[in-house]
Design brief:
mainly alpha; 12 helices; disordered C terminus; 71% helix; 2 domains
Length: 260
């Protein structure tokens, strides 16, 4: 059953975490630290939803475990990857476009915006945790799809980190492992993670929570994911054009395709 008050508590939780992160970002002059906190917003909201549902059972434990593993792994990886590199160029561009007073504007342009998006995407978490219940075949299917996504996301990140750590690969394009089948295995993995969580929510009767994974899919494929990352990568890395020709943009496959 949907209780607006409990769902709004999730928004308040995400906004509070975003605001705290914003304060730190102003001191560090680095808005991109929000990337490492993004997944933690979902973990915090899941905790609030579970606490206010007053339910226990295998579905609640399963969802909390899946969210915890996904969120902590992603947060730690991004924090490690970005350590010592300063503000990401995407946020530098946002900063340049929104002067003067970007420090203040970034609270709603970056931090509260991401909290709001995370809140909508968290709908399947609310639906699954508010309903509780025993596991069904849909739950197992959702967990299996989540596992596929986690393998692509975590595996792709690990493979890319190893590739970049080798000086011999400087200037080359990563096209091995998961990256052989999709140019963005981490984004495809996130896609599977959230549709997997949606299947678990649907098993609990939360079919109505579909706006969550739909929004995540749009962000990954058309907004802040593939489209933004590849906007000018061909100009910065000429070898990437050949990689685009022979490798799928998002969904894994043997043929080179784009999202267009």
């Amino acid at each position: 059953m949907f209780h607006l008050h409990d769902y709004l508590l999730g928004l308040a939780t995400a906004a509070a975490l975003a605001t705290i992160t914003w304060v730190v970002s102003v001191a560090k002059r680095n808005a991109s630290i929000v990337d490492a906190v993004w997944s933690l917003m979902f973990l915090a909201m899941a905790g609030v939803y579970a606490a206010h549902s007053n339910l226990a059972g295998p579905r609640v434990r399963l969802v909390l475990a899946l969210v915890c593993v996904w969120a902590l792994r992603l947060s730690l990886y991004i924090a490690w990857r970005n350590a010592g590199h300063g503000e990401d160029r995407r946020y530098q561009e946002i900063r340049a476009r929104n002067q003067p007073n970007f420090a203040v504007k970034s609270l709603y342009l970056v931090f509260w915006l991401q909290a709001g998006l995370a809140w909508v995407i968290s709908l399947p978490l609310y639906a699954a945790l508010a309903a509780g219940g025993a596991l069904t075949p849909f739950d197992y299917a959702g967990a299996a799809l989540w596992a596929v996504g986690f393998a692509f996301e975590a595996g792709g990140d690990w493979q890319l980190a190893r590739f970049k750590a080798n000086p011999a690969n400087r200037g080359r394009v990563m096209d091995r492992g998961f990256w052989r089948y999709t140019r963005h295995p981490n984004y495809f993995g996130d896609f599977c993670v959230w549709w997997g969580l949606y299947l678990i929510a649907a098993a609990a009767g939360g079919w109505w929570s579909v706006p969550g994974p739909v929004l995540m899919s749009v962000l990954l494929m058309r907004v802040s994911g593939v489209t933004l990352l590849e906007k000018d990568i061909g100009e910065r890395r000429p070898a990437y054009a050949e990689y685009v020709r022979r490798t799928n943009a998002f969904f894994p496959g043997p043929l080179g395709k784009t999202l267009d």
